Every structure is written in C-alpha cells, then in structure tokens.
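User: Good morning. I'm curious how JHZ would be positioned relative to this chain. Could you predict the structure with it bound?
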Amino acid sequence: MNKFFLNLGRQPLANNFTSYYKKNQPKYNLKLFYNTKTKLVSISKRMRSEKMFNNKYPYRSSMSKTMKDSFKILSRQIIKKFNPNLILEIGSNDGALITNLDKKKVIGIEPCSNLAAITKKKGFRTYDEYWNYKLAKKLKKTHGLIDLIYSANTLTHISNLDEVFKSVDYLLNKNGILIIEDPSLLECIKNNAYDQFYNEHIYVFSALALRNILKKFNMEIFDIHNLKTHGGSLRYYIKKKKNKNLKIKISVRKQINKEKKYDIHKFKTYKIFSKKVKKSKDSLLKMLKNIKKSGNKIIGYGATAKAVTVVNYCNIDKNLISNFIDTTPEKINKYIPGKNIKILKYKKNILKKYDYTFLGAWNFKEEIINKEKKFFKKGLKFLTHIPKPKIIYY
Ligand code: JHZ
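Assistant: Good morning! Here's the predicted structure, ligand included:
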C-alpha cells in the first residue's frame, strides 16, 4: 500500500528551461508516497519519459569536476576488478563515464539525442533509445550478452522498474554484474534534502527497497559503496542469485542495518521528514527576506533540478534571488522553470556584484567553495538549505 507523506506543491518539469518567463508553464502535483510492502519511496505523478528526456535535455554530467573525477576512478576500478569484455551504460549522458573506456568494449544508451550525439561524434557506440525490453532484445541480437551493465542516476527516472530489471536480467551474462548508483534515501532523509524529489526522480532508493525489488528477478546486491556524490549516493553491485562465484560482502548488511537503525522501514520516519521539510521552507523564506530587507543582493549558484524544486515549493521569485549562475550552455540566458529568475552565464568575477549566494548545487559545496575561495574571503556569504537553512561562514 502506498501511503502519502509530503506535498511539494505544483512543480514544472525540472529541466524545462525556457528562453522567456512563461507564467503559465504547465505544472504538476509533486506528492511523495511510501510503499509499506516494498519500502520504496516514490512520487505520485508519472510523466511520460518523452516529455522530459528528449533532444533538448540540458543536464550534462561532465559539467562538474567532482562527477568527472568520480567516473574516471570508477572506469579504472571496473577494468581492474571485473575486466569485462563488453560494458553497457544505461543513461550515458554526455559520456562522462564511457569516454574513459575502450571504444570497442562499451555501448552507451542515451535517449536524449542531443547528448547521445556528443558520444557518437567521439566514435562511441551510442543508441539514442529508451531502456526497455525491446531494446534489450535488439542489443542481444547485435552484440550478444553483456558482462557488465552500469547505470548512474538513471534507473530512478524510469517509471516501470519491472521492465527495467527484466531487461537487465535478460541481457546480462549469467556471471555478469549490474552496478547502479543513485542518491541514497537515508542521506536524503538525514539531510532533509526534499529537493531530491522532482518529476524526473520517480524514486529515491534505499538498499532495503532495492533488495526487495530485486528479489522478484532473482538478483541480489553483493556489495555497496557509500559515495559523496549528489549529496550522498550508494553504488550497488548486483549479481544473479545463481552466480555463486561472488560472495555477499559485509557492506550490504552494514548498510541495511544503518537504514533500519534510522527507521527507514517505518512510516513514522516520513511523517517526521514531512514536518521538517515544512519548517525548512518557512525558515529559508524568513532568512532570504531578512537578507533582502538589509539591502543585500542574492544570486543562486547552480541552476539544478533540485533548485527548481526549492524555488517552486518555497515560492521564491526574483525579488528574493535575483538570478542564478550556471556553466551549462543549454541553461544560460534561460529562466528557472516556473519562475521569473534568469540564469546568467558563469563568469569569473560575477560574484563580486553579490553579497550572498544560495547554493542550488549544494551537492558540490566543496568544489564550489574551493573555486570561489577568493570571494568567500572577501566577504561573500554562502547560503544553503541543507541540512537546514543557514549561512556558511569561512
Ligand atoms: P547537479 C540532475 O540534477 C538531473 P541536478 C538528473 N535528473 C539527475 O538525476 C541528477 O542530475 C544526477 C552547475 N554547476 O549535478 C552545473 C555550475 O554551474 O547537482 C549543473 O547545471 N558550476 C539527471 O540538476 C548544476 O550546477 C559548478 O561549479 O540537480 C549541477 O547539477 C558546478 C559544480 C556545477 O544535478
């Protein structure tokens, strides 16, 4: 049974950046539910994939050094640990991972054709298609079974998880490995990071929920790594149950125990989370209003999908945060979905003109603060709403 616990209001598509402020941009309910049987946390309204992931998708994994480095390290580990003959990445985006690998040994799946074009141009085999059973069948015919399937921040974007795992099971070698990486529900709840939920993020996985889902497909998690990326993510190593060559590592039990200790499997946790989120909204608005009242200028740093959730949920407009800055070419000079806040091109000295900067990309706090140390030292203040609204002092 799905139990409702939080209403994040009417939200536009989180990556639908428009060239002018569209007052009547379509918005959809963003309500969060907890499934008492599977322990899966999900949003209620499911958008058609084509509406969100098309030839105009603006998000590029390579825009942050942290992510590029993380993928580079992982690509080396994959080769060293598993030495697979053929790797498939579901959601290869602009190639942050696959471009580190041997072209002959990797295939990318990326339905956003503007992004798929980037890796195709570099000579990497990329299918600009959605991950489903039909595609898995086509791939098996052309390339045979796959030794290692990898997917970062993608499977939580696909509504039909049954089809996702059925297709993986079908295409994966009997001794093959599936590695998936997504924000951790435990970290999300601990950090009060309600902005991990938006129309693209249908689910935020816990190890507990994922274990339950995989049972149906006779697959099991055999190792889990905690990552710092995206505000705390988990990298799950998954195998077919009948593959007895790989032993289940202690990390799996450890993570599940950690989640249970935090009552991730109890509905009351979500009720508490919901209350904290409402408090966070009030306190962020209060803080922004006070800063403005004193005549200070605030700019947002990183026009993230997460920031779209925050500004729309808290009803923040340009009177509070005048602009956002971002390095992504596809976002520059566009408007934050649902709001009259324009995104400016990141320039070295742009922060000089502002007193405060709100961390839209709070998940890259260290990278950003390090990059902008000079301004920080000169008195620029950073604001964050994670884990609760506050000013970060140098
Ligand atoms: P970032 C996206 O979410 C969407 P977002 C998606 N649904 C998903 O699952 C996650 O990614 C993984 C900018 N930036 O990664 C670049 C700077 O301008 O937090 C990006 O626009 N300067 C697929 O959008 C944004 O911030 C910088 O120095 O919440 C970061 O977006 C840095 C570090 C980033 O994901």
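Residues 59, 63-64, 153, 200, 230, 302-306, 326-328, 331, 346, 361, 363-364, 367-368, 371 surround JHZ (CB under 6 Å). The longest helix spans residues 267-293.
Let me know if you'd like a different ligand tried.
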